[in-house]
């Protein structure tokens, strides 16, 4: 039994994803990995040397750019599948790549995700919990929260070495507005504008696709 | 001597490197919940340096305690079991002569471990003290699961990794003795002294060095599967910490943690302590109590953890 080096982990192992992960799951796993390993992250505090941190962050970026693009992902899968334990041939007649087709079947899933999320929101509103009591769901990403966090978008931008000015030119938002979104400073946002739609615009300019990114304000 | 642990008992050891993370609070709340729902629970205050579990459980000071057991005044651990005001829960109080107990010798520790395993109870909870001394590590490793508790602070997270690393070396040392390859583990420990906090690099070198026993030690480490609890989470970002720590531990320490619960911060915990009323009794329907109850449900079935990992070894 050999112990793989971190740099030799495949993208699915790196982001803790199953082979049939949906695009939304890939995106959530990417944001979660950035939140775990970015410079100053609490969870990896004291564990990584600067060059180790750079190594894993670059690898996470490469994983997302591959897995978020269906064509590149298909190519990548065809290269790594023969080496994955799930796909080792157990009997000569059972070799199959049928699970790859799950990529093509995600439309229906997305529809049910939307239905579920709408039901979930209604239930939450009826709930009427005491504001002092924090409920912890332990879930992650737009799917769970209803919108992007500015802080995570900032992580993505910084990890790709982009400036606010560059983003501002692609999504027609001002630099000051982008900074306010990143700081989650709602008082600096223009009145009458829905912060979640601005965050979604920002997210799309970073290539975070998200059908599920719209929805409501956080609180 | 090492042998397979008896399968009918769940022993949860609540520990972690840093003080003030809520170990005793969690142990007491779990004890009360498991006792009232499933019964037959014994909780042991193994914080030898500063025992105070009895205060959290509203049991008066004085009476029999671990000090008498260590001094051989009482031969068996079950002779110092105390009733508590909570249904289905008995307490073994920590020693009040703390200086003696804090510096427990090896033989007395082995006697304690042996008797914990033979206690006539289906569920045993061991509340450990702070630090990574051998006494705390051995009792933590005894737990199936050992429950590591952290708070969303850099000091707590850093101590958690130090604690995990020390536990891993302790586990590997036990296996090293068992397979008569202590030199290999000593070499690993020496390698770690000069290297980074993470275990992975040293283990990679160990596996490449010894193709026969290296992988064996790696499998041994996979049998060590502690639980993780994040306490005092103040917002949803804190709630993600647990999953992130699990990922870092898997990748850089090769230790698989089970995220058992994320417990939100609640100011009222402090006031319950001041009133000497267990929080889970005073506010049974708040998110903190719900998180603990859910965790108790996961831990309840006696013997389940052992069944999952038949090869788990432990010290006697």
Provide a short characterization of the protein structure.
Chain A is mainly α.
List the helices and strands and how they pair.
The complex is a heterodimer of chains A (219) and B (316).
Chain A: H1 11-14, H2 23-37, H3 50-67, H4 70-80, H5 106-127, H6 142-145, H7 150-159, H8 164-171, H9 175-183, H10 195-205
Helix pairs in contact in A: 2-3, 7-9
Chain B: E1 2-4, E2 10-15, H1 23-38, E3 41-46, H2 53-56, H3 66-70, E4 82-83, E5 89-92, H4 98-102, H5 106-117, E6 123-128, H6 134-142, E7 146-150, H7 154-178, H8 182-194, H9 200-209, H10 213-223, E8 227-233, H11 236-239, H12 241-252, E9 258-264, H13 268-275, H14 279-282, H15 287-299, H16 304-308, E10 313-315
Parallel strand pairs in B: 2-6, 2-7, 3-5, 3-6, 7-8, 8-9
Antiparallel strand pairs in B: 1-10, 4-5
Helix pairs in contact in B: 1-15, 6-7, 7-8, 9-10
Keywords:
heterodimer; A: 219 residues; 51% helix; B: alpha/beta; 8-stranded mixed sheet; 49% helix; 16% strand
Structure explained in plain terms:
The complex is a heterodimer of chains A (219) and B (316). Helices cover 51% and strands 0% of the residues of chain A. In chain A, helix 2 packs antiparallel against helix 3 and helix 7 packs across helix 9. Chain B is an alpha/beta fold and 316 residues long. The N terminus and C terminus of chain B are likely disordered.
